[in-house]
Amino acid sequence: MNSTSTSRNDIVQLLNIAEYLFGYVGLIIFVIGTAGNLINVILFSRLESLKTLASSLFLLVSFLGSQTVLTTGLLTRVIRGFSGIDPVYTSVILCKIRWMIRTIGGAVSLTCVCLAAIDRYFLSCHDAHRHRWITMKRARWAIFISIIFWSGVFSIYAIYYTSPVPLSCTIVDPFFAYFVPYFNLVHYSILPLSVLFVFCMLTWQNLGQQPATYLRGGVRLYDQVTRMLIAQSIGIFITSVPNMTWQIYSVSTNSIQKNSLRIAQENLVNTICVLLGFSTHAITFYVYLISSSTFRQNIKQIFVHTPHRIEPLTNMDPRKMSANKDQQPKGTLDIA
What we know:
disordered C terminus; elongated; 72% helix; 11 helices; two-stranded antiparallel sheet
């Protein structure tokens, strides 16, 4: 009897810890993520030089997608962590919208980051023809097609997610419920991580084969946007791998019979991994801030009044770099 009572207490404690984590840690992730995404949107939409970069357009859309994930996916769980009631559970429409919009936002965000990585790889290539493969027009089309494609794919979530009993939001079809973990593992973890790994490694290899650019007293500076993107990709790897590992474990043990204590333990681990997954969409600004001095200068330029204007990130065509080298005015910081 004492053993049963202890087990019940452990289960309740584990479930409460999971809710507290979603409430407090989730709130921190939401606040810092929202602030960072908004600053990124302001910076990438205001700087004229960034508007001419296809990769910057991809990243701008990825910020919007990330904020959609935080708003529709994390915020409701934060509310549940404090109040005990998830607003999504109170309405079938909210249930369907939450799972559909959140998943589309996450897929579009990661797709655009992958497209930005591909664009930076082409620009780092020695073959000048590859520099023109992704133009601004093609970038807009790629974004449009991505949004339409993922909206079509995940519209099925609005069909299968429902509220079979009051205060619930789940999949009622057993076949679709079995299929979803496998699909999420591929589209949200394996596929984007593989693309980012391949193209970031190729870009890094290309940069290592090119001569460094020495500016302002011999300070070595590589392509700042590329550096920021590689740093962001590393951040995505760090925050996504635990969630991917947990998804693999969940899929592997899906058919195993589990007792209540094990379910509670796995729920706590799942909560930690899910929060790490949400942090993928919250840390981009801070990764940029750490990895790029030019990015920090542009933040000061926009939000802090300074008597001397700091030149923003500049879209320098690699083919024109050598031609413009002798004509570049002193004191100007030109970085693609």
